[in-house]
TrEMBL record:
Coiled coil: none annotated. It is a multi-pass membrane protein. The lineage of its organism: Eukaryota, Sar, Stramenopiles, Ochrophyta, Bacillariophyta. It comes from Chaetoceros tenuissimus. This is Uncharacterized protein. The chain crosses the membrane at residues 12-35, 47-69, 89-109, 129-148, 192-218, 361-386, 398-416. It comes from the Eukaryota. One of its GO terms (biological process) is adenylate cyclase-activating G protein-coupled receptor signaling pathway.
């Protein structure tokens, strides 16, 4: 009774898990082809799509085991030798194709993460053809070859058809001829079409995961080292500035007489030049000196006097260093029209943040894809090794193999939708996981930013963000309100200039739109409009310079 229940379990579980995997892979293909605007225009989409095809083939063969396995192998089986050949071909083609496409996916992510390859570099070269040609050629050729050689037979221990022997007593009885396979041919074919390729794939996929993890560790160490250097540099600069401020009551000569090993000859000369100034000039010079010591290279001389200091060149160098070395702003001690906070470019900072975010997502996706492959195939590999060596696999190993082996498609759709679901839940924390999953599924996996943005591909094959209508209207309203609040200060600024004022009508603010530039969400609202809209009163319009008027045409409506 126990054996009968175990046997029935081994037939029923693949039907459930295989059906789940078929639905998952089919849904992923439907999502890419129907809902997505990118469709198959990206390399990773094409790899995932082909993987889903082979996974459906393999999962279908596993789910129909009870109908395809020959009836004499078990009282629950309903098939024959023809159906056994069909199942064997489906298992071999589906296994080889899905396994090799998992390797192709891992190689793709390593090229993106480790070697910084761009999407267009991979798609326009021979690299992508290799990623597709090897899985397809090996899967199709090996499946047809084994069918022609009549090597597909029932596996008594796994209750499925693959490389097997029929009848079973042909190995022990010399009078019985083996209709399917033989002991030597089964071992030889299994070694070349399963053991060696699968061990190679398993090893390479594991190595790619280690490369991704190593890259994460290296990047984290670099980030920690950068933070420590930045913190130490800022602390040293702040301590020195505070020390100089305490010397305000005295003269600069007292400070120079003290041994300061970090001062360069040029900095010492500059400080001595300041002694001729008044106390007020000395005080302001001490504040500006804090800026000079904060920079790593303050020397800006000429050919005639290499140690001379040019304050404007020094400030320019400080600004350049603050933009390239770190993101922390360098704020001058005395704020005036010339001494303003020196910050890194907002656009460059946003691009760095987006690049860092995309890299983290790619690394996480790579590790999750590979982990799902390793989990699904580790038990099947152990069971097949038992079968090839002629020893029966333990029931627990066979059971785990039948549970996890067909579920790779299910794990892949979870990994594929994970960043989109996470972004949607972040934008709307009240949504449940399944609700966010449905939204991401209907969006085709294009909304990496919580449903507010669509990634589309232009005619040059470059990903371009596109705002949704609802998000566009929301941002337009924000800009309208910001412009109305700022119009008073602009009016006072332009009234001091020689621009002529004219009476104008209320402007149609609904025509304001945004331009998408190089991956940024919207174009910065830097242009000042020519009219200001108010409730029912006449508006005193302010004319803009001609160069700003010409830029208005750049706004996309």
């Amino acid at each position: 009774m126990v054996a009968s229940s175990k046997l029935l379990t081994l037939f029923i579980i693949p039907m459930v898990t295989g059906t789940i995997s078929i639905v998952s892979s089919s849904s992923l293909m439907f999502c890419i082809l129907v809902y997505s605007q990118i469709k198959l225009k990206r390399v990773v989409r094409r790899i995932l799509f082909m993987f889903c095809i082979y996974d459906c083939i393999y999962s279908l063969g596993s789910a129909l085991s009870i109908f395809l396995t020959p009836e004499w192998t078990s009282k629950y089986a309903l098939g024959n030798l023809i159906t056994c050949d069909i199942q064997g071909a489906m298992v071999q083609i589906g296994f080889a194709g899905s396994a090799f496409y998992t390797l192709s996916l891992a190689i793709y992510y390593v090229a993106i993460i480790k070697f910084n390859r761009k999407e267009k570099d991979i798609s326009n070269k021979l690299f992508e053809y290799i990623l597709h040609s090897i899985p397809n050629s090996f899967a199709i050729i090996s499946g047809i070859f084994l069918a022609v050689k009549r090597q597909y037979g029932p596996l008594a221990e796994n209750h499925a058809c693959w490389l097997g022997i029929h009848p079973r007593n042909c190995l022990t009885d010399p009078d019985v001829e083996c209709e399917r396979g033989s002991h030597m041919t089964i071992i030889e074919y299994a070694k070349w079409v399963f053991v060696i390729p699968f061990m190679l794939i398993y090893f390479l996929v594991f190595c790619t995961m280690m490369i991704a993890c190593h890259h994460v560790i290296i990047q984290k160490r670099k980030a920690d080292k950068w933070r420590m250097q930045t913190a130490g540099r800022d602390l040293s600069k702040s301590s020195f500035c505070c020390f100089v401020q305490r010397k305000k009551s005295g003269t600069l000569q007292e400070f120079i007489q003290e041994p300061v090993s970090s001062l360069s000859p040029a900095q010492t000369k500059f400080m001595r030049m300041q002694q001729a100034l008044s106390k007020k000039s000395i005080a302001s010079g001490e504040e500006n000196t804090c800026i000079l010591f904060g920079a790593s290279t303050s020397r800006s001389g000429t050919k005639q006097d290499p140690l001379a200091f040019n304050v404007h060149q020094v400030k320019k160098k400080i600004r350049r260093e603050s933009m390239l070395d770190h993101d922390a702003p360098i704020v001058l001690s005395s704020f005036n029209s010339d001494d303003r906070p020196l910050r890194s470019s907002r656009k460059s900072s946003r691009r760095r943040e987006m690049a860092s975010r995309d890299e983290k997502i790619a690394i996480t996706q790579c590790i999750l894809y590979i982990s799902s492959f390793l989990l699904c195939w580790i038990f099947a590999l152990i069971a097949r090794i038992y079968g090839i060596t002629g020893n029966p696999a333990p029931f627990e190993v066979v059971l785990l193999s039948r549970i996890f082996n067909p579920l790779q498609g299910f794990f892949f759709i979870l990994v594929y939708s994970r960043p989109h679901v996470k972004a949607i839940q972040k934008s709307d924390p009240e949504l449940k996981w399944f609700q966010a999953f449905v939204i991401a599924f209907k969006a085709g996996g294009d909304n990496d930013f919580g449903g507010n943005q669509l990634e589309v591909v232009d005619e040059n094959g470059i990903d371009v963000p596109r705002l949704r209508d609802s998000e566009r209207e929301r941002r337009q309203e924000i800009v309208r309100q910001q412009y109305k609040r700022r119009s008073v200060s602009y009016r006072s600024t332009y009234n001091s200039r020689s621009y002529s004022n004219i009476e104008g009508k209320e402007s149609d603010m609904s025509e304001i739109d945004f331009a998408v530039v190089d991956g940024t969400t919207i174009k910065e609202f830097e242009l000042e409009l020519a009219h200001v809209a108010k409730n029912d009163t006449d508006v005193e319009a302010i004319m803009l310079p001609k160069k700003d008027k010409d830029k208005i045409d750049d706004i996309v409506v």
